[in-house]
Amino acid sequence: MNTMQFITVQEYSELVSLDLSTVYRLVNRGEIPVKRIGRSIRIPVSALEIRS
């Protein structure tokens, strides 16, 4: 069973102290791993460790 947890782009932005548009830019470049669910974008919590 997969228990991976996800956060929103807004939450990620606040946690890593980056502007929301910067986070979207990084997502579009493929620098932040994402899971797309319909039109929603979710970022795995593990991505926080990658940026640290």
Describe this structure in words.
With 52 residues, the chain is an alpha+beta fold. It has one domain (6-51). The chain has helices at 9-16, 20-29, 46-51, and strands at 6-8, 35-37, 40-44. It has a 3-stranded antiparallel sheet with strand order 1-3-2. The longest helix is centred in the middle third of the chain and has 10 residues, at 20-29. GO terms for molecular function: DNA binding. It comes from Alicyclobacillus mengziensis. InterPro entries: HTH_17, SinI_DNA-bd.
Radius of gyration: 10 Å
Number of helices: 3
Most strands sheet: 3 strands, antiparallel
pLDDT below 50 for ≥5 consecutive residues: which ranges?
none
Q: In angstroms, what separates the terminal alpha carbons?
A: 27 Å
Helix fraction? 40-55%
* SSE pattern, N- to C-terminal: EHHEEH
Shape: globular
| Widest β-sheet, arrangement of strands | 1-3-2
What is the count of distinct domains? 1
> Structural class of the helices, strands and pairings?
alpha+beta
Mean pLDDT: 92
Protein name: Helix-turn-helix domain-containing protein
GO molecular function, one term: DNA binding
Pfam families: HTH_17
Domain Helix-turn-helix: 7-49
